[in-house]
Design brief:
By secondary structure, the chain is an alpha/beta fold. The protein contains 16 helices and twelve strands. A hairpin with a 4-residue loop joins strand 1 and strand 2 (13-19).
């Protein structure tokens, strides 16, 4: 069984090909294109690379093409991407304008190119469908909730991978099995040991923090849209509901222009005075004395600590805090700042281990730390491939 995972951006196409033959999980090929202007050609070139590499002789060898779809109206989980589902994604284009439209276009192009190959989407909201209702509601009237104004949560594939892998690293095969089977049995797999409490921090261009109990999410810092939670590279993060109408009236902006500024000029970029949306540039500027760049870093750290602290309280502590994604895996100094002065909560980093860890699995907490601190490179594509395989096998 060979499953191609296609990651589609507004100007990019990236892919990984997995082989699940004989019970193995093997990545056969990965690649990608940036600055894509002709998607049909990009898909054709992707297939050509797979054939040239000898990993497929024909696209008919593909059991499915999987997609890390984001959000759709009244649809979540792992599903076949038919026109009904694509229509549900279109209904929520406004909530994920940078993600849904290019995915819908790309999926339709894949369907046209290989009509006999199943196309499967694992929605980023799927991991939170079992979270306590009280953690997923806003204080809005029922009519608002009925049209989808609620906390959905995102980065589900990443946080699910962390839930599985952290449990394995902590010697909890029972919790790993529950996380692995979550979309099959709704979290009913037996857990035989003490409760396992993990807080996973996906910190990157878009950042989110999730609390998990026994492999099942209790909530996510991202809410109704990717515009919420922590400040992102150029998206605002959490914002008071009155801020948008106030700015529109006071600055004389259209709603559309205000939305554009919040999604293109907000977040770390906005805090840093428009300097950059890349944390590396912002850190370099801060090191050279740029006060706005330093403020951007300080706000990011403060918000990360706020969300980690919230889940720490909800979970009655934590057995592990996990850092993942571009910033979480690679920026030791930001991990150190987020975990600073938390010894009274049982969180103590090993300075040398933290500084030596970059994009690799590691335990970076000190030996006496009650809470383990881990770095685990995420693997969202593998999660999508695994769930696509389960769907094909009729387990969903």
């Amino acid at each position: 069984m060979k499953i191609l995972i296609a990651n589609i951006g507004s100007t990019s196409l990236k892919w990984r090909l997995f082989d699940f033959s004989n019970g193995a999980e093997t990545m056969l090929h990965k690649g990608g294109f940036e600055r894509v202007t002709d998607y049909p050609k990009a898909i054709e070139d992707c297939l050509a690379q797979l054939k040239t590499a000898g990993v497929i002789a024909s696209e008919n060898e593909l059991s499915a093409v999987g997609f890390k779809t984001v959000i759709a109206k009244d649809v979540t989980g792992c599903v076949k991407l038919d026109e009904r589902v694509l229509g549900a994604m279109e209904a929520y284009n406004g909530l994920a304008p940078a993600h849904n439209p290019p995915y819908i276009t790309g999926i339709r192009l894949f369907a046209k190119r290989m009509p006999g190959v199943p196309l499967i989407g694992l929605f980023e909201t799927a991991f939170y469908q079992f979270a306590p209702p009280a953690m997923m509601r806003y204080g809005v009237p029922d009519a608002w909730y009925d049209i989808g104004v609620r906390r959905w949560g995102f980065h589900g594939a990443s946080h699910k991978y962390i839930a599985e892998r952290s449990a394995e690293m902590l010697g909890r095969a029972d919790v790993a099995a529950r996380a692995q089977n979550l979309y099959v049995d709704g979290g009913q797999s037996p857990v035989t040991g003490a409760p396992l409490r993990v807080i996973s921090c996906h910190l990157g261009g878009t950042s989110s923090i999730t609390g998990t109990l026994n492999g099942v999410a209790i909530g996510n810092s991202l809410g109704m849209s990717p515009q919420s939670g922590l400040p992102h590279n150029n998206r605002v993060g959490d914002l008071d509901a009155e801020a948008l109408p106030y700015a529109v009236k006071t600055l004389g902006l259209s709603v559309e222009e205000a939305q554009r500024q919040l999604s293109k000029e907000g977040g770390l970029k906005g805090l840093a005075g428009g300097l950059s949306n890349d944390i590396r540039d912002i850190q370099a500027a801060a090191a050279n004395g740029n006060a706005k760049a330093q403020l951007a870093i300080d706000v990011f750290i403060s918000e990360a600590r706020r969300w980690i602290g919230g889940y720490f309280f909800q979970l009655n502590g934590a057995d592990a805090i996990v850092f993942t994604a571009g910033i979480g895996e690679n920026r030791a100094e930001l991990r150190a700042a987020i975990c600073a002065n938390l010894d009274q909560l049982g969180i103590v980093l090993d300075v040398e281990k933290n500084n030596a860890t970059r994009a690799t699995e590691a335990v970076i907490s000190a030996p006496g730390s009650r809470v383990k601190v881990l770095v685990i490179p995420t693997n969202e594509e593998l999660v999508v491939a695994r769930e696509s395989k389960r769907l094909l096998e009729g387990k969903h």
